[in-house]
Specification:
Chain lengths: 382, 382
């Protein structure tokens, strides 16, 4: 409890853009997010008053950070489980808890648990040897998708192989792996929900996530043309996973849509790129909702603020040419109503440096406005 | 320019709730507002990373603060004009500039300037002696309104007198005063606009501001039942004042509506309570717009995000009973879609500690939701 305000103190481990945007939401709730940042130039480190420097793998830093927090939550999944358990033993409240967070950290554990829940999923197997891979490929058909069990993100830690021989080097590296069938997907969807310790769950409309080179470039809300019954199925699946896994906070369930239905691709237990559109596009943003959830406040209205909302990620373009400040001038001149979120990151090619959100009535128009705005920031041209 | 982000640094003198909410908007634009706070417990001081402590009347503190800022702007009107001129002489960019800001600081100068512009206004006079007051009262009718030329806000520095004798003590105090006729007002309105150095101006819809005991308690957007021609007249008046006075940033023109038309009550050259509804209620909030304006970015879309938006101020209630945290729980349970903004202030009776905003289609419903939410936070009951 902050004695100056009489309001709880939430700590977030990790100082990236999710912490940055959670801090924005915390300000409205009368709070100031306490941030543990590994790097003083992290996006949240640049903007949060209540900042501590330290690495998320350093138990002493985590312990010092947690002192005085009413609840500690996460900007990413990379805090070691043993540290989380040690802190809990010392009386710290960490949410989501380690038993839930495991399924956001470890893809093998996630696949096993979802199988127990009979949640729709690709066929998969633990992968230790070339013989395992050979057998799996023969069974489900090549190419197959190999994933690092831990630590992957944004297409990193994911490979497609057309023969077992191609995977030789990876298999020899000692990386813990699983293998999955390559699902004949129509598109990718995401069902984002939030859950409180009390057990309340709130779901935003299901969205389509458009990927390029393994990175999400666009989110369309709601997912265009998704039949109501499939949208409800996806939301109910996400709610069931959140409840069975005892998730607290935001849970993003990344889904593949196939001709036959939906299957779960990944889980993320934190605010997620597929929910950035909610800042302006929904009555309650995922960042506010995550705070409400970990504080066990009643959750907020998830209904949309406009019929169509499109979020486009802004990736860093080639260096040189117009400065980011000049690009922003041009974008604001061209698109007066598109909302910009820059993360305070130096521009590097392919790095997510921000996102833009457009709202409106017509998908094609809104999508084009968002894409044009993202292009201005990335390439310095319309 | 912040070398870490390639984006400009905006400094705001004053660490109150306006700076707090401007910091929220700055985060989205990739920036981190630099705040000069007189008190470490100021609302913005609790949340902004780039904080300096110092008083707005201390030239050395202002000078140190301005160093490295691309532009310096204001959370309030109380920075001495001579300090602003001294800093400008040293090369600091301060916006709005002193020639504009004067009319937000000095009611006599404002009344004189508006008279030159033939802007509609109450009859008024400079007030030095009881004889001045006697003469003015006899001419326009009692009661009359007496205002301190400088330093008033929220009903402070404003008095109604029914006889000259009642003002004896005030007149003897040496306070610089003006006197105005008491306008037979139907209601109060506000026309809020923003203007950039380039000369671009953007106007939000005209709102009704509902006062109680001289304090704004509610803002209704758009002003219910206001004929289009009167709304346009008010917007054009605000645009003309912004342009003629060379205002940069947000300008709030507080208006009285009478049976015959509108007259100007006050000017504020900064984000203003009558524009708080724009955070969720308009495509561009007054805080983002103020930043865009002082940075000479093109201004953002001012259209409404819903047909009806109501903002209710939250005043501190009597101490004791439920904590503010418990009140927030109840409010969130009762009103899942009302947006809360708490300013990080300790609760004191009558002190503005936050505001709530409700959006919807029907004025009565939206107004009742906002009022109920404000009541939960003030009184701990529905």
């Amino acid at each position: 409890m902050d004695p100056r305000t009489g309001l709880p103190v939430v700590g977030m481990v990790g100082g990236g853009q999710l912490a940055r945007m959670t801090h924005q939401a915390a300000i409205a709730l009368g709070q100031s997010l306490r941030v543990l940042a590994a790097d003083p130039d992290d996006g949240a480190a640049l903007v949060a008053a209540d900042l501590q420097h330290g690495h998320h793998t350093d138990l002493a830093a985590l312990r010092a950070f947690a002192k005085g927090c009413d609840v500690v939550t996460f900007d990413h999944e990379h805090v070691p489980t043993e540290h989380i358990r040690a802190l809990i033993a010392e009386g710290v409240t960490l949410l989501p808890g380690p038993d839930a967070l495991l399924y956001g950290q470890d893809k093998q554990a996630m696949r096993q648990r979802l199988a127990e829940l009979e949640a729709p999923a690709p066929r998969w197997a633990v992968l230790d040897t070339a013989a395992d891979l050979e057998r799996f490929g023969a069974e489900v058909g090549w190419p197959v998708i190999v994933k690092a069990t831990r630590g992957g993100y944004d297409g990193k830690g994911v490979w497609a192989f057309s023969t077992a021989a191609e995977a030789e080097e990876l298999l020899a590296s000692g990386t813990s792996l699983i293998v999955e069938e390559r699902v004949p997907l129509v598109r990718e969807l995401a069902a984002v929900v939030a859950r409180s310790p009390y057990g309340q769950v709130a779901a935003w409309p299901v969205v389509e996530t458009v990927q390029r080179d393994g990175i999400c470039v666009e989110v369309l809300a709601p997912a265009p043309g998704l039949p109501d019954e499939r949208a409800i199925e996806a939301q109910q699946l996400a709610i069931r996973i959140a409840t069975e896994l005892d998730v607290v906070g935001v849970l993003a369930v990344e889904l593949f849509e196939t001709a036959d239905g939906i299957v779960v691709n990944e889980l993320a237990m934190r605010p997620h790129n597929s929910g950035h559109w909610t800042i302006e596009g929904a009555r309650t943003s995922q960042f506010e909702q995550h705070l409400r959830a970990v504080l066990d406040y009643p959750l907020g209205d998830t209904s949309m603020a406009a019929p169509v909302v499109v979020m486009a990620n802004v990736l860093g373009g080639e260096p040189g040419g117009m400065s980011i400040d000049e690009r922003l001038h041009h974008l604001f001149a061209a698109e007066t109503g598109v909302k910009v979120h820059l993360y305070g990151k130096a521009v590097r090619p392919g790095r997510k440096i921000g996102h833009v959100t457009a709202l409106g009535d017509d998908l094609d128009t809104v999508r084009e406005r968002a894409a044009r705005a993202a292009r201005w920031l990335r390439e310095g041209r319309a």
